[in-house]
Design brief:
Strand order of the largest sheet: 1-2-3-4-5
Shape: globular
Strand content: 35-45%
Radius of gyration: 13 Å
Number of helices: 2
Structural class: alpha+beta
């Protein structure tokens, strides 16, 4: 899975892979995958809403993979503060073209 994510992220020049999030109110939020990291054999994605992407400081979310059947993956938002901070630090260590503020 990490190799697939690395290929997706490496091949992205001006386009990003998109994922859809089902929100609590039943609406779907489309997001661009900005980055990803594998931690303890769990895939995490850094995503930004497609609608907010062009904003000067868009809000980003960290999603955690909870299921992967080979065809479709299921992610949930990271809500645990310790887990979130651990992943955030690892994302900041990646050589990236974006800046994280928290």
């Amino acid at each position: 899975m990490q190799e697939n994510l690395d290929n997706i992220l490496d091949d992205m020049e001006d386009t990003y892979e998109t994922v859809s999030m089902l929100l609590d109110d039943g609406t779907i939020l489309d997001c661009f995958v900005i980055d990803g990291v594998l931690v303890d054999n769990i895939q995490y994605l850094l995503v930004v809403s497609c609608d907010d992407f062009d904003k000067e400081e868009p809000e980003a979310f960290i999603l955690k993979q909870i299921e992967d059947d080979g065809e479709e993956s299921v992610y949930i938002p990271v809500e645990d503060d310790n887990e979130y901070n651990k992943v955030l630090i690892l994302l900041q260590e990646n050589e990236t073209e974006y800046e994280l503020e928290f």
